[in-house]
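Consider one such protein record:
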Amino acid sequence: MSQFLFARSSWPFVALGGLLAAACLASTWYINRLQGDLARAVRHDAARMEAADEFQVQLRHLRFHSVVCAADPTGARREVVRRDTAQADAALAAIRADITAEDAGLLAVIESDYATYKQQLGPGAPAGPITTLTELVRWSDAHPMRDLLQPCRELSDRQRARMDAGLARSEADTAWAGRVLLALGSAGAFGGLVTGYATARGQRRRAAQLSVRVRAVQSQLDQEVGALSVDPPTADLGEQFDRVVERVTEVCRRLQDQERDLLRAEQLAAVGRLAAGVAHEVRNPLTGIKLLVEGALRPANRAALTDEDLDLIRQEIVRMERTVQGLLDFARTPPLECRPHDLRALVSEAVNRARARAERKPVAVKVERAATPLAVSADRDQMLSLLTNLLFNAVDATPAGGNVSVRVERAPDGAPTVTVSDSGPGIAPETMGKLFTPFATTKPTGTGLGLTVARRIARDHGGALTATNRPEGGAMFALTLPKGAGSDE
């Protein structure tokens, strides 16, 4: 219960904490992504700036070595110039591969000036060495490079400006991210304090309310149960609960004692009803037998026992035996000796036992059997007793000329089922509720134990026995046994 109260009072604060945690995670992810994008942009700008600077360096190398080659045009000097030209071409290609749209015009100027400068170095190169300084200066002035270096420096400055802007933006974003995380951390700490305070206050309030209810329960128990030996009142909720549990335990013990007393009283009442029923069932046959025997033993005017008298005595003795046997079946619970049987065979044997009784009335007994065996694990004698009892009751409830229907089939769920239906008046509503109660009977000579024993046998086998009235009239008893209980006999 304490866990329920805690969850009930703290879930808004837990949700708030979850939102703060999600905000922190989202902010961290966004900041990391932003920092990564800025770092890539800065590296890109730095690479562009390095390419522009590298092109300027290679141009200066080409300019210097071209002048040296003009003064000393040897094969080695010319090879150095060709190598410088190739390196300048490679640096220009690197710039061209990563140029932006806004720098495309400036690149076109650089490429045009560079192409012109290379063309001038070819036809304008001196045929032989320039020996005087004046001629060397004149030749150098005739091949200027300042017009080419100016746009290169402008391109490098642009790239440097972009890189500086990216770094400034990165610093600004970093500062903003720090402020956001600081705000989230402060909000989380403040939220934790508020959550703890609110949860503690809510728990205290609910504990106080629960304490009031516990005291009310204690007072109610004091009034209804009576004075008990209890501890003095205490403010601790756990001890109050312990006291209530002790009182409830005492109440349960008293109720159990009362239930045992009531059970003994009911048992005595049941014994009284049983004794009355047995006395009634045994006294009537004994009275008839006593009169016949006294007539045969009179000193004078003895009445000889005829075959009819002897048959009557036998019937009364059988009646007393049936009464005693029903009492024994109700009182004892013999252990089951279950073996595999075919339910159809058990029903056929029970029908054969009841057929003579049905023919004397007369009542027709119709049997519908399943086409395939219905394997059950059952105690043969007890199951036959159950089925015979259902058939005897159906025959007794059916008027002469009526019929009793027995159906043996497999239910939709696969459980073996036996239904016994009759065409009698059905079960009265006032009898339906106590049909399986001991000593409840509508027969003038019955003890009311047959159906009670039958239901007990069904339950001992793991099945069920139910009774209903058919829409077309008459009663129907249904026996359902567990499916797959055993194998074919």
Observations:
- Confidence is low (pLDDT under 50) at residues 227-231, 485-489.
